[in-house]
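User: Hey, quick favor. My workstation is busy. Could you predict this chain's structure for me?
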Amino acid sequence: MTGHGQGSGHRHGQGHDHAEGRRRGRGHGHGHHHHHSHDRIDSALEGSAAGLRTLWVSFAVLAATTVAQAVVVALSGSVALLGDTVHNATDALTALPLAVAFLLGRRAATRRYTYGFGRAEDLAGVFVVLVIAASAVFAGYEAVRRMLDPQEVSHLPAVAAAGLIGFAGNEWVARARIRTGRRIGSAALVADGLHARTDGFTSLAVLLGAGGSALGWRYADPLIGLLITAAITLVLRGAAREVWHRLMDAVDPALVDEAEHALAHVEGVRAVGAVRMRWIGHSLRAETSVVVDPGLTVVQAHAVAVAAEHALLHTVHRLAGATVHVDHAPQPSAPDPHEPLAHHAVQ
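Assistant: No problem, here it is.
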């Protein structure tokens, strides 16, 4: 929603009619200016649809890869390939909670969930991180167990071929998920794509294990298993950081710079206050304040606020809406208009 200060205003949100929207705000007053809201809703739906398509296709690719590798694991007893297979299986399964999150995110906002259900993606991201952590623990356990009790690995050409299959499948999935995730602004999908990319490199590591085993080094396979575990741990760190940033409402500071620059060039804006942004699903919401001439009428100040939101919507990629509060420049000997709020300030 977009709030326009100076006493009173109106309010309406996506998916609601204008009659419902024209409610009086409290305190400073708020209002909302639609910038082709149906276009923004369509864009959000298209983003979810693109995410779902990518998830289902990548799920099918990884499921086929996992089945092929599992057959070779059963024949060869390779612990390195086992770790890679388990990782591929878990990566395929992470598509399910992400798909549920995308479907939830398409639901309209309600009186209880007034910002909609986009945060479901963040919860799915947490699940992805937990799955990566579990696969790291399992792969590490199996590698250590084989280090203590090394075993011969058979069917080495098949193990090498399975490693190549794993790399090809994972790299395709990684590119698809990362590309789509960045295009629609989904941190969870990007994290899952990074997960798949590391799976691809760990699949190549299986080739080294097969080569070492072919040369008669019994510890080659479990050592590669440990390397795979280390690689999974690195992915875990990166994915956890991405999801943590979303959970803590972090945004790229460059987006804030863009917003401040756009607001500063709006006609009638004398100064720009704090700009805050947060991701809700794969859309951004923003709030800010602008200082205008105290001699403006309510209608004129409202027009400045509308122009400010308009500038933000054209400047900040994936911004779904903004709240703009209007302040006036200080007047000599006049009381501070924010004095009634002073005792509510967070210390």
